[in-house]
Amino acid sequence: MTLFSEIRGLPVVTLGEANELGVVRSLTIDVVSGLVGQVRLSPTRGRKEMAIDWSALHVIGPDAVLVRSGAVLDTAPPPAPVEILGVRVLTEDGDERGTVRDIAFDAVTGRVEKMCTALGDIPGDRLVGLGDYALVVRTG
Amino acid sequence: MSELMSARDLGGRPVVTLGGEAVARVKDTVFDGPAGRVAGFTLNGRGLLAGPLKQSLPWSAVHSLGRDAVMILSRGVLAEPAAVIARGEAAHGRVLGARVLTDGGTEVGTVLDLVVEAGISGRVVGFRIAARQSLESGSKRRRRKVYVPRGETLAVSGQALVIPADATRFVADDLAGFAAQVEAFRLREADRTEPTP
């Protein structure tokens, strides 16, 4: 299990050319599948902000994230950026449950294992929705 | 029993989809007086300074009324303002300030606010009233604000509400204490209406 806070800021490098594309800035989560959708990068050296599909990742290492060569990079500006860390957590009943402090996911499959909040961890399979206002979870 | 909420406190509460998007804020809570339920909400735009929306939220489209948000399935459930206002027209604005009478003919006070059950029921379980002296036996204070359960036999007109005289024995000073009183009163009413075998 990997924490997002552990990979935030890691350099993202292509496997074949060793080009550094940027550093990990945030993750997008596909709520329906419960998987990490894309890794979004902070731009470096004049590059555009970009996002990489989870499927294009080769490995998440301790010091860098390696991307398969020839992977299609999504340089279109992503829609409505959702910063996961710090977003408020709401149950589907409409009660707040703190804010997201970290996300734990499986580094191989990309499955979201749990959302960490100040009030305790919430299993990833309780995820209902993620929008600009809140991350919505099923009531446990 | 679900948590209780003051209707007045619902103003400004965000309306959030299960997808996590805030689409509006509650402007006013509209009551269906005869049914003793919330008919729905009129809405303001998202920002604190945003004006009224030309859409409303009928209670049937509410996923859950929570402490911190009113949850809905999606933006698509919002309806024409008429969907809510027409249903609540008979009671809205007239419940607040109305005189509260017992079925014994005693006036116990005037309505300051309504108390709504959280969750999916939308039930109005009681009122916050400015109590008259007749309600407070033994109290030295002249007038106070108390919560009184509404009972199942609520009658509502434009000017007054009639509640069971028994309800006045189940008043509370705050919402926390009121939940227990509502439950106690409900049990008592159930006892009386169901003949014991």
SSE layout and pairing:
The complex is a heterodimer of chains A (140) and B (197).
Chain A: E1 2-3, H1 4-7, E2 11-14, E3 20-30, E4 35-43, E5 50-53, E6 57-60, E7 65-67, E8 88-91, E9 96-105, E10 112-117, E11 120-123, E12 127-130, E13 134-137
Parallel strand pairs in A: 2-7, 8-13
Antiparallel strand pairs in A: 1-9, 2-3, 3-4, 4-5, 6-7, 8-9, 9-10, 10-11, 12-13
Chain B: E1 4-6, E2 14-17, E3 22-32, E4 37-44, E5 52-58, E6 62-65, E7 70-72, H1 81-88, E8 99-102, E9 107-117, E10 124-131, E11 144-149, E12 155-156, E13 160-163, H2 175-193
Parallel strand pairs in B: 2-7, 8-13
Antiparallel strand pairs in B: 1-9, 2-3, 3-4, 4-5, 6-7, 8-9, 9-10, 10-11, 12-13
Pfam families (chain B): PRC
Domain PRC-barrel (chain B): 4-73, 94-164
Protein name (chain B): Photosystem reaction center subunit H
CATH superfamily of the largest domain in chain A: PRC-barrel domain
Envelope shape of chain A? elongated
* Oligomeric category: heterodimer
Report the radius of gyration of chain B as a whole number of Å: 18 Å
By CATH, the architecture of the largest domain in chain A is named: Roll
Please name the defining characteristics of this protein:
heterodimer, A: 140 residues, mainly beta, SH3 type barrels, 6-stranded mixed β-sheet, 1 helix, B: mainly beta, 7-stranded mixed β-sheet, 2 helices, 13 strands, 14% helix, elongated
